[in-house]
Design goal:
The complex is a heterodimer of chains A (about 100) and B (about 280). By secondary structure, chain A is mainly α. In chain A, helix 3 runs antiparallel to helix 4. The relative contact order of chain A is 0.13. Chain B has one domain. Chain B has 11 helices and 2 strands. A two-stranded antiparallel ribbon of chain B has the order 1-2. In chain B, strand 1 and strand 2 form a beta hairpin. In chain B, helix 1 packs parallel to helix 10, helix 4 crosses helix 9 and helix 5 runs antiparallel to helix 11. The longest helix of chain B has 25 residues. Chain B is globular. The two termini of chain B are about 20 Å apart. Classes of the chains: A mainly alpha (about 100), B mainly alpha (about 280). At the A-B interface, helix 1, helix 3 and helix 4 of A face helix 3, helix 4, helix 9 and helix 10 of B.
Chain lengths: ~100, ~280
């Protein structure tokens, strides 16, 4: 992943996969929510609420993995300025979650 | 409140519209969705903000697919400014408990009105810039596709002021629970001389990172509930996909005018809230 175009292509593919999977999970959860008391849905053992949360988690993971992709790219081209900036962004994200949870 | 067809029927089209506009203008769509969910659907405000946060990621991801592929998103500029936004978000988190919310809301509305005025008065006057020294060093310049002139290179100027501006944007995002696109787009377009469509695409890319952090916090606090978040995110995702694919049909000045109208709307809402005339 050495050129900017290659990074753009990979990031674009990642977002397509992340959004696609998330949309499938969310659409399935919306559909199942209308049949949640039907016996055939109960026999599947799938709860629509869990599917929805799984869709949300896939969506949340996508920009985080995107930042990791960028870090991998900057490391591959040894762009130290951007390696530091990207690590700072990741650190801020982790600290934000910790501060928010506290 | 329950998971009903009534909720879906109203929420899906509004979420679709919010995603469509969000993708065009570089905002998450939370400024449209949160008031709708609270005022029209009776959703408690914290749950509405939780759904709004996740919706911002959907806008960012869906619009990013075509914007990044088409080269409209400036990934290096987004990372440069995101470093400031992260610092601002941390400052905002520390300030949140110490500042009077109403004073902040009135101040924020004044900033928004100023941004609207600057953007409106600059319509038709956009001038490209050369990279300044910092932009040269960080390789911030990029290219974008102009509907009239095709592939156009652009430079970035006022990089340090832009970085400090993005600290303020991060602080505001954290204090008010918004993606921050309403600050980032004018900052890039007016101060750093990034063309409107590239500014909107880059802002969209950035707000996903900010919102991912916020969403994890909201999930931890129990404010992301499936029956609200599923239709909202699904609608926003579809709207953003279509919005980002049709953005080339809009003239940059049309987008700018739409953005000014959005700023005026957000400014009025924030001022009314600050004055205690709106929840």
């Amino acid at each position: 992943m050495k050129t900017r175009e290659e990074l753009e292509h990979r990031v674009s593919m990642l977002m397509m996969f992340g959004l696609g999977l998330s949309m499938i999970l969310l659409a399935s959860s919306i559909t199942l929510s209308f049949f949640s008391t039907e016996s055939w849905v109960l026999s599947l053992g799938i709860e629509w609420e869990r599917l929805a949360i799984a869709g949300v988690l896939v969506l949340i993971a996508t920009p985080i993995i995107r930042v990791l992709f960028c870090l991998h790219h900057f490391a591959a081209v040894r762009d130290w300025k951007y390696i530091v900036l990207t690590i700072w962004v990741l650190f801020g994200m982790v600290l934000g979650v910790v501060l928010g949870a506290a | 409140m329950d998971n009903s067809i009534f909720f879906l029927l109203f929420t899906l089209p509004v979420s679709f519209a919010a995603g469509f506009l969000g993708a065009l203008l570089g905002i998450g769509g939370g400024v449209i969705l949160i008031p709708f969910l609270v005022l029209f659907m009776g959703v408690p405000v914290h749950y509405a903000i939780g759904a709004g946060m996740v919706a911002v990621i959907a806008t960012s991801t869906a619009s990013g697919i075509s914007y990044v592929k088409g080269g409209a998103t400036n990934i290096k500029l987004s990372m440069f400014l995101e470093a400031g936004t992260v610092a601002g978000a941390l400052i905002g988190a520390l300030l949140a408990a110490r500042l009077d919310e109403y004073v902040l809301e009135i101040l924020f509305s004044l900033v928004i009105f100023y941004c609207a005025f600057v953007m409106f008065s600059s319509m038709g006057k956009f001038r490209r810039a050369w990279n300044d020294k910092v932009a040269e060093r960080f390789d911030l310049g990029h290219h974008h596709h102009d509907p009239v002139h095709g592939k156009q290179k652009y430079g970035v100027t006022n990089s340090i002021s832009g970085l400090f501006g993005s600290v303020a944007a991060g602080c505001i995002s954290c204090l008010f629970g918004i993606g921050g696109g309403v600050v980032k787009v004018p900052l890039m377009n007016q101060l750093m001389k990034v063309p409107m469509k590239a500014a909107a695409a880059t802002s969209n890319f950035m707000i996903g990172v900010t919102a991912a952090t916020g969403s994890l916090v909201f999930i931890g606090l129990g404010y992301v509930v499936p029956w609200i978040v599923a239709p909202v995110t699904f609608g926003v995702g579809l709207g953003s996909l279509i919005g980002s694919r049709t953005s080339h049909k809009f003239h940059p000045e049309t987008l700018k005018l739409l953005f000014v109208l959005l700023l005026v709307y957000v400014g009025i809402r924030m001022a009314l809230k600050g004055l205690g005339w709106m929840v």
